[in-house]
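Journal club side-thread
Mid-discussion, someone asked how the predicted structure for our own chain would compare to the paper's figures. Pasting it here so we can look after the session.
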Amino acid sequence: MKTKIFQIGFNKCGTLSIHDFLVENGIRSVHYLKGELANKIFDNHKNGIDLLSGLDEFDAFSDMESLTSDKFQYVANDLFKELHQAYPNAIFILNTRNVESWIHSRLKHGGGTYLDRYRCILDKPKAGIIDFWRSQYEAHVDNVKGYFMQHPDAHFIHLALDKCEPDELGLFLSGAGIKLKTLTLPHTHKSPSKQNLQKKQHLNALLDAAWYFKKIDIELSRALFSNVLKIDPNNIYAKKMLADTRQSFIRQSMKKIKTIFGDKL
């Protein structure tokens, strides 16, 4: 069996660059698969079978996360110990970057739709989600580093992408017995346009205001969510909140009607 390689840092930390590097070197690498990669591994764990069952065609695994409007799952966070126990000879790459730069990149991810999915799950304003991401990131990095300090024989590298040399990962893999054609890690990245960023900043302000007024003035809150949908008809958080607040809006409207008309109704 070929040596397995697991990237166990968060997304937006060079995961696609790592994947492209491995593919360029002839390694059978799989990246994200729109969340199905993580879902498969979690299903295998739930069913008590080999974590990589059904993924036999691959030797390297990156961006193992699944995020919908209902939940998020991170293989790297929840199952990295199980992966090491199942594959003690595997290579583990903890890819990190400056946490504030990482948060900024996540906010832009998918033109802002990544943030919106987190709004649906956590029902927090932008600042609350940023605080959650930061604490989650710091806890995961500490947990991974602490675990592998207790397993000094493991093939583990902490790859700090904003500090490392372009050939650091290549040299490490070569030292672990992986044959490579090139040692240089590429930089695979695409930033959204300035116009799209300005539009998303405006939407974020509306969404935060709508969230704030949800418990104070349901009519104003729904009006703000509706305005978001006029700008961004596919905004999943605004759609969810309009659906979730519909009954509250109806109840408050009926109460106002009864107050105005009393027994005349």
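Post-session note: The longest strand covers residues 91-96.
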